[in-house]
Design a protein that fits this description.
Blueprint: E1 6-10, H1 14-28, E2 31-34, E3 53-59, H2 72-82, E4 88-91, E5 107-109, H3 111-116, H4 118-152, H5 157-209
Parallel strand pairs: 1-2, 1-3, 3-4, 4-5
């Protein structure tokens, strides 16, 4: 099992994300990657499936112009549902209203404070990543044990249920992303169809007025 030693940043500004990544790497000596923008909030759940993912930092105001239709806490919710033990941090002002959803993340940190007090937060993140590594190592070990017993025909009924649950946990992030993507894609097609109909009607109106 590859150790989860990388941190992913989800941010609306590539320049600010790169600056934050450089600062964190200088404090923590781990790899910090900037995640690509996704169509749906649930698509980010796939980050947890990357074997090197040790933590995720998400900016709350990902969609200031209401283009994506999701914010950072929405992304965090999908990640937490798929990967319960994954360290997740939200970048947001102290006064930001999260409607009682603060418990979804490990901590809410203003970006300027994270940059200024990087060594302090770096230590906390490294400790959380260490705990996550322990959880994932145990989970991986147990899954391999169950799989070996299954192949040898020595799996009890209780262990069959346990193995099925492990498989469900592995497939869950990808299933959620596919469903959300289908919904978003259908909405986009409907909007394009509406615009096309409007354009067609306007074009006909112009043509009808021609001599």
């Amino acid at each position: 099992m590859q150790e989860p030693t990388s941190i992913y940043i989800i941010h609306r500004s590539p320049e600010e994300a790169a600056n934050l990544a450089r600062t964190l790497e200088s404090c923590m000596h781990v790899t910090v990657r900037v995640a690509a923008t996704q169509l749906a909030a649930s698509d980010y759940a796939d980050l947890g499936a990357e074997p090197d993912t040790g933590a995720v930092i998400i900016e709350q105001r990902l969609d200031p112009h209401s283009t994506l239709r999701y914010c950072g806490i929405d992304v965090a919710e999908h990640l937490r549902r798929a990967w319960p033990a994954l360290p997740i941090y939200l970048i947001a002002p102290r006064e930001e209203s999260l409607a009682g959803r603060e418990a979804i993340v490990d901590d809410v940190i203003p970006e300027d404070e994270l940059l200024q007090r990087c060594p302090v937060y770096a230590l906390r993140m490294l400790r959380a990543m260490g705990r996550y590594l322990q959880v994932m190592s145990e989970r991986d070990r147990r899954y391999r044990e169950l799989l070996a017993s299954k192949l040898d025909g020595r799996l009890s009924q209780t262990e069959e249920v346990e193995l099925a649950q492990y498989r469900t946990d592995i497939e869950l992030p990808f299933a959620g992303s596919a469903t959300e993507y289908a919904k978003t894609w259908k909405s986009s097609l409907s909007e394009e169809e509406r615009l096309l109909q409007t354009f067609t009607a306007e074009l006909r109106d112009v043509l009808d007025k021609l001599p």
